[in-house]
């Protein structure tokens, strides 16, 4: 299952993500990765987590974003948790594309035994209902 942190700008999604990241670092028997659009969280996250900015790799759109996440998983089999901030800023605001992306990531997570948490700047009611077949809100 993929976890989502929902809410509009300023609702505390990133702070919640950092809390989840710190918990994952303490419980993981492998590596924890934090993905963000730009390098804004450098001083906010524990140094034991790997921080990756998608802007450094010119990731735009959900197709490229999925390929990027699959590559991260392929590059290190010891990754247990991947936490992503600013999902809509990376992939775009098309909620149907977001639903397809999250379904693909769900299949990746199941196949690779990875936990994913995404922040999404939207309310639950705004998103397609199909997303919640494989995603839970935390």
Structural summary, described in words:
The chain has helices spanning 13-27, 62-75, 87-91, 95-112, and strands spanning 2-6, 31-36, 50-53, 79-84, 115-120, 135-137. Helices cover 38% and strands 22% of the residues. The model has no long low-confidence stretch (mean pLDDT 94). Strands 3-2-4-5-1-6 form a 6-stranded parallel β-sheet, with helices on both faces.
Summarize the structure.
The chain has 138 residues and is α/β, with parallel strands linked by helices.
Key phrases:
6-stranded parallel beta sheet
Helix and strand sequence: EHEEHEHHEE
**Global shape:** globular
Please describe the biggest sheet, giving its number of strands, its sense, and whether it closes into a barrel.
6 strands, parallel
**What portion of residues belong to β-strands?**
15-25%
Number of strands: 6
Average pLDDT taken over every residue: 94
Q: In terms of structural class, how would the helical and strand content be classed?
A: alpha/beta
Terminal-residue CA separation: 12 Å
In spatial order, strands of the major sheet run: 3-2-4-5-1-6
Rg computed from alpha carbons, rounded to a whole number of angstroms: 14 Å
Pick out the low-confidence regions. Answer: none
**Percent in helix:** 25-40%
Count, helices: 4
């Amino acid at each position: 299952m993929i976890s989502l942190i929902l809410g509009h700008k300023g609702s505390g999604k990133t702070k919640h993500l950092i809390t989840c990241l710190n918990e994952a670092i303490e419980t993981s028997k492998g590596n924890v990765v934090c993905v963000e659009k730009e390098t804004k969280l450098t001083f906010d996250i524990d140094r034991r987590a790997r921080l990756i900015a998608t802007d450094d790799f010119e990731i735009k759109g959900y197709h490229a974003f999925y390929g990027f996440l699959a590559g991260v998983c392929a590059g290190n089999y010891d990754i247990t948790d991947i936490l992503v901030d600013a999902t809509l800023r990376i992939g775009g605001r098309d909620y149907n594309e977001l639903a397809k992306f999250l379904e693909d990531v769900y299949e990746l997570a199941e196949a690779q035994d990875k936990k994913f948490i995404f922040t999404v700047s939207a309310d639950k009611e705004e998103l397609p209902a199909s997303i919640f077949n494989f995603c839970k809100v935390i």
